[in-house]
Amino acid sequence: MNALGWIETKRDGGALSAADWRALVDGVVRSTVPDYQLAALLMAIYFRGMDDAETAALTLAMRDSGRVFVWPEDPRPVVDKHSTGGVGDKVSLPLAPLLAALGFRVPMISGRSLGITGGTLDKLESIPGYRTRLSPGEFQAQVQELGCAVVGQTEDLVPADRKLYALRDATGTVASLPLITSSILSKKLAEGISALVLDVKCGRAAFMRDAESARALATRMVRLAGACGVQTVALVTAMDQPLGRAAGNWLEIREVHEFLSACARGDGDPRRTAPWQDLEILVVECAARLLCLTGRAGSLEEARGRACACLHSPAPLRFWLRMLAAQGADLEAYEKRLEQDVLAPCAVEVLAPADGWVTVCDARRVGEVIRDLGGGRFRAEDAVDPNVGVDRLVKVGERVRQGDVLARVHGPDVDRTRAAARQLQTAFCLGDRPETCPGPVLFEVGPSEGGGG
């Protein structure tokens, strides 16, 4: 079947064969299928959908469009985690070294910010000297030796996805569930992993605004990953308020360092990590799921205990610093940056206008403020300012007095920072009684619910 046949089949609600999907992906990579026909096909898929067999065929064809990593025999399982993105979502940063400390290999290939959603690579590149671009050989050697590496997508990894995603972005078809699923999973499958935990965000600042759509995406991804041979579980997590107390590239790196440093004291005192309770819960829950999926824990309770005990030890901070050094970070310059309270040219506090309980901290508004200050992107090619952002964020359910700090805005100049602080003020609502705030994990979709194996 040719490109016109593919378009007509999907337009009429039919299904393409695995051979058709392989031919399509080959045409994408070789540029033998014109963009106008690909755009028409994407729109047909957007309206007509794809069944599971088609989605699996497209995912595997995209995976095989470039390099697929093969790992040496080793008792350490190869695993990863993927998040659909949010504001202040820094889970991957402490999770990768924790997993390495737990005896996993973590070949984490991450992305950049777009819109209000932060990007792991942009955060890491705020560290002086850190290289997010490693050769495939360097990447594989570091994962084998150290246990973890966090890098960007190389040119030869799933090249079909880059072309298709750019067209989806230009044609209004980004929101197609099967196309989202195949895009995410093709890259993860190319890493050569055996187990995957998905963090599907849900709420004000998430791609999936409501629980029903988040469950649909989570279920589809778990089912498809299982069909492709990767044990997978999805956690649907809250993204109504930012995760942690800071959002913005460098500010999140500093927060991760403070969190891991508090954990490294190893005394298990929950007061040390109380400011980052939501972050700690998600890091432990993700690690625990991977321990269970790989058969390294007999129960979720046992897995949580092992993950928590390892987190509250010096090991994750040690692996974090080793990873930074291995990827070129200047640790002396890094430490000097950590010592400075404000790196942006200006910082302005947002103060509580009255006494009350915090009932809303709108993550979407926080993300918009950061993006508008230059900390995020309107277009993929935009540069980002690593030093702008928001920290000292209060959390829903906390009590404040008039004049207390609700947040602090770091900006590029006085006028823009003051304007951003005024805008950020509207992200907060105060009430006369405490608001019940659900925990960061809303629910789980496991292999049995997803139907995968």
TrEMBL record:
GO terms for biological process: pyrimidine nucleobase metabolic process; pyrimidine nucleoside metabolic process. Keywords: Glycosyltransferase, Transferase. The keyword Glycosyltransferase applies. SMART domains: PYNP_C (SM00941). Pfam families: Glycos_trans_3N, Glycos_transf_3, PYNP_C. It is an enzyme of class 2 (transferase). The keyword Lipid biosynthesis does not apply. Residues 357-431 form the Pyrimidine nucleoside phosphorylase C-terminal domain. SUPFAM superfamilies: Nucleoside phosphorylase/phosphoribosyltransferase catalytic domain, Nucleoside phosphorylase/phosphoribosyltransferase N-terminal domain, Pyrimidine nucleoside phosphorylase C-terminal domain. GO terms for cellular component: cytosol. One of its GO terms (molecular function) is 1,4-alpha-oligoglucan phosphorylase activity. Homodimer. Belongs to the thymidine/pyrimidine-nucleoside phosphorylase family. NCBIfam families: PRK05820.1, Y_phosphoryl. PANTHER family: THYMIDINE PHOSPHORYLASE. This is thymidine phosphorylase.
